[in-house]
Amino acid sequence: MTEKKLANSQLGSLDYDPAPESASIARLKPSYGLFINGEFTDPSRHEQFVTLNPATEETLATVAQASAVDVDAAVSAARKAYETVWSKTTGAERSKYLFRIARLIQERSRELAVVETLDNGKPIRESRDIDIPLAAAHFFYYAGWADKLDHAGFGANPQPIGVAGQIIPWNFPLLMAAWKLAPALAAGNTCVLKPAETTPLSALILAEILQQAELPAGVVNIVTGDGSTGAALVDHRGVDKIAFTGSTDVGRLIQQRVAVSQKRLTLELGGKGANIVFEDAPIDEMIEGIIDGIFFNQGHVCCAGSRLLVQESVADEVLRRLVRRVEQLRLGDPMDKNTDVGAINSAQQLARIEELTEFGESEGATRYTSSCELPEKGYWFAPTVFANVSQSHRIAREEIFGPVLSVLTFRTPEEAVAKANNTNYGLACGVWSEKGSRTLWVAERLSAGVIWANTYNRFDPTSPFGGVRESGFGREGGRHGLEAYLNV
Ligand code: NAI
Ligand code: MG
C-alpha cells in the first residue's frame, strides 16, 4: 500500500481497482415485441421506441409501443385464459407454476441483474443482492399461499377478481413486476402488465421465463409502451382490477378514470419519508441507516427517508458525520461491483432533481454536495445533503426522487411527530432510538403505512407494504397482498 493510500484508509476511504461485471451476460436482442397470449408479437401499428442505458446514453434495444388495439388483444387473451384455464386450475397447480418461475429467476439471476443495471442505471451490487433475490422471494412466498387461500382469513373458498391490469414504474422494474404478478397469479387472476418506458427489458426477460415455465398462454401478458399504453389499460372495459405504482399525479388521474367503472383499484404512490433520529440512537448504525435510507437506488425510492429529522442536541455531530460519509460514497459505473451510487434513470428525472435542488438553494437551505467526479456521458447527480431546511421549503415538501437529503431538527418527541406528519404523503418513516417505549410512542402517532425501527428500507415478501393519504391505498406483500386480488 502506498503512503497516500494508507493515509486515505486511515480517513476511512480506500481506492479500489475497477471490478466491472460483464455486459455481455445480458445477451440482449436488438428488438423486442409484445408478449401476448404466450408469444412475442409485433405491435399492430409497428411503432417502436428505444430504451437507453442511462449511464452511457447508448441504446440497449428497441421495444414495441403498444396501442389501444394491442392492449385490447392482451386483455382478450387474459380473459380467455382466465375463463378457460386459470380459474379452473387448482391452487396446488398454480403454486407449482409460481415455484417454477421463482426457480427460473434464480437460475437466470446474473443475467437479470445485468439487464436491470444496464436498463435502469442502478449499481450491480443492488440489482444482484436486492432486486433479483427479492423478486424470486416474492414468487416463492406467494407460491406457498396459492393452495392455502381457504385459510388466509378471507372466508372459505375466496374467489379471484378476474383480469388484473398492472402498471409499474422504473425504479425497481423486475421487483415491481414480481410484487404485482405473484399475488395476482396465486389468487387465480390473469394479468396484463405494463412496464415503465425507460426500463422494459427485465419484464421481457421475465416473459421468456414464463415461456420456459410453460405458464399457460394468456395468463400473463406484457405490453410495453408509454403512458398512453397505461391509459388504454386503465380504460379497458375488460379489466376488473387496476394496480398502479408510480407518481401521485398519475395515480390521481387513474382514480378519476376508474371511478366511473366497477374496477377495483390499488395505488402505491409517492412519499416524503421522515427518518427520525433521537439523541440516544447508536450513531454509527444510524449514520449508515440514514445513508441507506436516501442514497439506496440513487434515492429513486418511493419510501426513501428523504427528510432527516434529527434531535437538536446531536444535530451538529450527525450532520458532520453524514457529510463525511457522503464524501466516501463511490459514484460511477453501475456495472462496477464497488459502486454505491449509479446513474439517474433518465434525463427527465435528472432535470426534475436539478430543478428542486436549485429551489433548495434559493430558498436558503445550506447545501453540501459530494465532490465526487461525474462521468461525462450519462445522467448523474452527486449525493447531496441540505441542512437548515425549514418545513415550508419545497425540498421538505415535494418528492425529489433523487440522491438528495433534507435535514430538519426537533427538540421533543411531540415536535418530531408533528414535523414527520406535516406532509401530504404517508408511505414510510424510520425511528432511531435505544429506548423501545419511545420508539413505540412515536410509531403509534406517525401517519405512515410502514415504520422501521433502528433500520430503514428493509423489505420482505412476508411484510405488507403500502401508504396512507396521498401515498395511496391497498397493501402489497404478505397475507394482506392477497386481499387486493381476491373478491372479498
Ligand atoms: P409516472 O407515474 O408517470 O410513471 C409510472 C408508470 O405509469 C409508467 O409505467 C408510466 O408509463 C405509466 N403512466 C404514465 N401516465 C399514465 C396514465 N395516464 N395512465 C396510466 N399509466 C400511466 O412517473 P414518472 O413520470 O416516471 O416519474 C415522475 C415522478 O413520479 C418521479 O419524479 C417520482 O417523484 C414519482 N414516482 C414515484 C414512484 C413510486 O415508486 N412511488 C415511481 C416512479 C415515479
Ligand atoms: Mg433504460
Descriptive terms for the model:
16 helices, binds magnesium ion, alpha/beta, 488 residues, binds 1,4-dihydronicotinamide adenine dinucleotide, 6-stranded mixed beta sheet, 7-stranded mixed beta sheet, single chain
Largest sheet: 7 strands, mixed
Radius of gyration (CA) equals 22 Å
- Fraction of residues in helices? 25-40%
Distance between the termini: 64 Å
User: Structural class, judged by helices and strands?
Assistant: alpha/beta
What order do the strands of the largest sheet run in, or round the barrel if closed? 13-14-15-12-11-16-17
Number of strands: 18
Report on the structure:
With 488 residues, the protein is of the alpha/beta class. Helices cover 40% and strands 16% of the residues. It contains 16 helices and 18 strands. It has helices at residues 3-10, 68-84, 91-107, 109-120, 124-145, 173-186, 201-212, 227-235, 248-259, 283-295, 312-328, 347-362, 394-397, 413-420, 436-445, 480-483; strands spanning 31-32, 34-36, 39-41, 48-53, 58-64, 163-167, 190-194, 220-222, 241-245, 264-268, 274-277, 307-311, 366-369, 384-387, 404-410, 428-432, 450-453, 472-473. The protein has a seven-stranded mixed sheet, sandwiched between helices. α2 packs across α8, α4 crosses α5 (124-145) and α5 (124-145) runs parallel beside α6. The radius of gyration is 22 Å and the shape is globular. The model is unreliable at 1-9 (pLDDT under 50). The structure holds 1,4-dihydronicotinamide adenine dinucleotide and magnesium ion.
